[in-house]
Each structure stands twice: as C-alpha cells, then as structure tokens.
Amino acid sequence: MIITRTREELYKTLEAFSKRPGKLALIPTMGNLHDGHLSLIKLAKLKASKIITTIFVNPLQFGKNEDFKKYPRSEKLDIEKLKEEHCDILFIPRNGEEVFSKHEKVKTLDSGTLGSELCGKIRPGHFDGVLTVVNKLFELINPNIAVFGAKDYQQQILIRKMAKSLHPQISLLKAPIIRSKNGVALSSRNNYLSEKELDIAANLFKCLQNSVNSYKKRKQLNEILNNANSFLVSKNLMPDYFELRDSELNLVSKDNFEGRKVFLGSVTINNTRLIDNIEF
Ligand code: AMP
Asked: Residue whose CA is closest, atom 14 of ligand 1?
C-alpha cells in the first residue's frame, strides 16, 4: 500500500495508477477503522481493481461542542488493517491544509432542507461540512466509484444528490450496515461506551426491528412511533429522533404502505450519540 500525506504525493501516485487498467474506487473515512469500514473496501473490490482509502477527521463536520479533539485516532492500527485488506493507496493528509489549501477558496456546499432535518437538526452545519469535504475529495481524487455505508443513511442520500449534480461521472455504492453480535451498528464512537452501555445500545436496533414488524402488520404509525420513543426512554436511551421516511428521506404520508421505507433513530447514551436505521 502506498501511503500519501500531501497533495503532491497523492497526485503523483494517482498519475502512476492511472496507467494501470481497471476502475479506481474511493472509500472516505475518518479512521479508527472497524469491520464496517473494511466491508466498504470488500464491496469496492467487487467493482474496482484499484482501491484508495482516505483517513481525515474533517473539522468542518463537527459542531463547536462536539468531539473533534477527542475523536478516536489510531493511525498505526488503521494502516495495518488497510494493508491486510490489500488497499492500494491511503491518503492520510498530514494536516488540514492538504485538503483545504489556503491558496484556494473553500467551496462550501449547502446541504439544503434535508441537511437540517433528522441528524442535521441536532447537528446544525454538520452535513454542509460533510458535503464540503466529500466534494473536495472527489475533486482531488476523481475516482470512478465511491463507497458509503448505509449506517449513515442521511449522509449517503445527501452525497448522492450532491454527486448527481457536481460529479455525475462517479458511481456511488451503498454498503450494508455491519453490526456486532448483539445488533449494535459498528461505529468509531462505540469506543466511548462500556460493555454495559453497548448492551443497552443494542435496544436501538431492537426498537427499529420491532417498528418495522409493526409497520408491516399495518399498525398505526403514530402508535409505532410513540411505542418506540417510550421503549427507548425505558432503556435509558434518550431519543434525539425516531422517524419513518421513504427511502429518499421524504416524509411519509400516514396511509402510504407502498414503496421502500426506512426507520431511522438517533439516541444519546452517556453523552454519546448513536444512530441506526433499517431500510425495508
Ligand atoms: P466514518 O469513518 O465514520 O466517517 O465512516 C466512513 C464510512 O464508513 C461511511 O461511509 C460510513 O457510513 C461507513 N460505516 C461506518 N460504520 C459502518 C457500519 N457499521 N457498517 C457499514 N458502513 C459503516
């Protein structure tokens, strides 16, 4: 694996790889890699012969009082995991300047109405930051394919919309959610939780499963959502939101059982926010 830490190194490496046949797939991450991230690489390999992973804890997507400083960083271990996965290129910028150069104006993207709903309601500006960095990575790398996890459902929808207008040549893949044995969706932020808290966190997935089952039995949506919120509170998981949307994240009218839907939830446990969803 070739490790690049500056734009110059990145460009040189990409230039060399452009002479090799096959497609280039990009997997953007913030590091602290777990099996969820690695599954994105495995999926990418089915569609592309050259894999580039980026590790960049993007300051633009963290709010003032959020965990940018303490976000878990584990560079050495991440590099080992990527080598085992036979990733070809890692771009791990030595500082923010290698992504957002001071010689260029940052093209700040606006995530629109959807960007201020669901997670965006609790984290104002978060998705503008995500889109801004992903757009920049797309500009720097110009991959054929980019892979994003379904775990961050709203993120992948917003990126898809952005890419459709700004980078229509890039195909986006959505990778399924990887969970631990008890059902908790893997996340770097799970590191903040104790074993006991992780057991409690598993109730978010249970709640999503119960809600899907009830919906399929055509129970009233209001009742499902009320039950879900009460259930989460009873387990000491404080709901930030729990909603049903269609698969594009449009609001769902009460009696429309047609088409693909997604239940999405966000809960806080011991100051840590966890998100999860089930699309069906
Ligand atoms: P992050 O490092 O949290 O920014 O995540 C990088 C990418 O990995 C994003 O596309 C996430 O959606 C994806 N990802 C994170 N956790 C999981 C998971 N448990 N299953 C599948 N994809 C995931």
From this structure: 149
